[in-house]
TrEMBL record:
GO molecular function: orotate phosphoribosyltransferase activity; orotidine-5'-phosphate decarboxylase activity
Pathway: Pyrimidine metabolism; UMP biosynthesis via de novo pathway; UMP from orotate: step 2/2
E.C. number(s) listed in UniProt: 4.1.1.23
UniProt catalytic activity: orotidine 5'-phosphate + H(+) = UMP + CO2
Keywords on record: Decarboxylase, Lyase, Pyrimidine biosynthesis
Lineage, uppermost ranks: Eukaryota, Fungi, Dikarya, Basidiomycota, Agaricomycotina
Single GO BP term: 'de novo' UMP biosynthetic process
Entry annotation: catalytic residues: D95 (for ompdecase activity), K97 (for ompdecase activity), D100 (for ompdecase activity)
Name used for this protein in its record: Orotidine 5'-phosphate decarboxylase
Length: 277
C-alpha cells in the first residue's frame, strides 16, 4: 500500500496549507524545535504540573492538560502556563473532550471556573452530538484564533469510535468547517483523513495518544504503541505521551531525559518516513 501523501510532506512545508493560527503555530514549532512530541501532564495539582512542564518544555511542541483534575486550580496557573508556553515555545492543549449540544459547549468553553478559550490554544470534542458541537465551539474559538480537534478514534480497548463512526466524523468536519478555519485535525490512531476524500492542498493534523516506549497498557483499558508504530507505520503527526514521561521513576532529571528520549524516537520515525519517498 502506498503511503498517505501527507506523510511524505515535511512539517515545515505543511505550514502554508493552513490558515488557522494555531495550526500554523504548531507546525512552526515542530519544525523549529524538531519535535513531534506532546506531553500530557495528568497530575492532580497545578504546582506539580508546572514542575513537569518546566522539565519537559524544551523537548515538546505541545503541553496537554486536564485542568479539571487539579485540586488547586486557579488562573495563576493558566497565567504561568501561558508565560511558559512563550518562553519554552509550545502550544497549550486543554483536553476537555466536549460532548454536548452547541449552546452548552460554547458556555463550557468560554465560561465557568476554567474559561478554557481564554488561555488554551487548542481543545477537542467528540463528534457524537453532531455538527452543532463544531459550530458552538467555533463561535467562541475561531475569533480568538484557537483550534479544535475532533476525536475520530480512541486508544482505549473496546472504543466505539471505529469504522463508520470514524468516517462520519471526518465527513462532518469537511461539511461543517468549510474553509477549514477552526477544525485543524483529529485525535486518532490512524491516518483517518482518507486520500480519496481530501482535495489537493488540504491538510489535517493527526494526534495519537496511547504511546509508550516500554509500557504496553494499563489495567483500565489503555493500549500503547511505540512512537515508531504511530509516526512511521500509522502516519500520525504528533505523539501524545503521559505516564510514560511524567510517571518515570527517578530524580528531576529523569523526566527531562525521558521526554528527550521520546522526542528523539518520534523525530527519528518522522525522518525515516520522509526518506521512504
Ligand atoms: O483516545 C484517547 C484520547 C486521548 S486525548 N486516548 C487517550 O489516552 N487520550 C488522553 O491521552 C488521555 O486522556 C490522557 O490524558 C492521555 C494518555 O495518557 P497516558 O498516561 O496513558 O500516556
Amino acid at each position: 500500500m502506498s503511503p498517505h501523501p501527507t506523510t511524505l510532506i515535511p512539517y515545515g512545508e505543511r505550514i502554508k496549507l493552513h490558515t488557522n493560527p494555531t495550526a500554523i503555530k504548531i507546525l512552526e514549532i515542530m519544525n523549529r524545535k524538531k519535535t513531534n512530541l506532546a506531553v500530557s501532564v495528568d497530575v492532580t495539582t497545578a504546582s506539580e504540573a508546572l514542575k513537569v512542564i518546566k522539565r519537559v518544555g524544551a523537548s515538546v511542541c505541545m503541553v496537554k492538560t486536564h485542568v479539571d483534575i487539579f485540586e488547586d486550580f486557579t488562573h495563576e496557573f493558566t497565567e504561568e502556563l501561558v508565560k511558559l508556553s512563550k518562553e519554552l515555545d509550545f502550544v497549550i492543549f486543554e483536553d476537555r473532550k466536549f460532548a454536548d449540544i452547541g449552546n452548552t459547549v460554547s458556555l463550557q468553553y468560554s465560561s465557568g471556573i476554567h474559561k478554557i478559550s481564554s488561555w488554551s490554544d487548542l481543545t477537542n470534542a467528540h463528534s457524537v452530538p453532531g455538527p452543532g458541537i463544531i459550530s458552538g465551539l467555533s463561535k467562541i474559538g475561531k475569533p480568538l484564533g484557537r483550534g479544535l480537534l475532533l476525536l475520530a478514534e480512541m486508544s482505549s480497548k473496546g472504543s466505539l469510535a471505529i469504522n463508520e463512526y470514524t468516517e462520519k466524523t471526518f465527513k462532518m468536519v469537511k461539511e461543517t468547517d468549510l474553509n477549514r478555519e477552526f477544525v485543524i485535525g483529529f485525535i486518532a490512531q490512524n491516518r483517518i483523513d482518507k486520500i480519496e476524500l481530501i482535495k489537493k492542498g488540504e491538510d489535517y493534523l493527526i494526534l495519537s495518544p496511547g504511546v509508550g516506549l516500554s509500557l504496553k497498557g494499563d489495567s483500565l483499558g489503555q493500549q500503547y504503541r511505540t512512537p515508531y508504530e504511530c509516526i512511521f507505520e500509522s502516519g500520525s503527526d504528533i505523539i501524545i505521551v503521559g505516564r510514560g514521561i511524567y510517571g518515570i521513576e527517578g530524580d528531576e532529571k529523569a523526566i527531562k531525559d525521558e521526554a528527550e528520549r521520546y522526542r528523539q524516537a518520534g523525530w527519528k520515525a518522522y525522518e525515516e518516513r520522509l526518506n521512504r519517498k
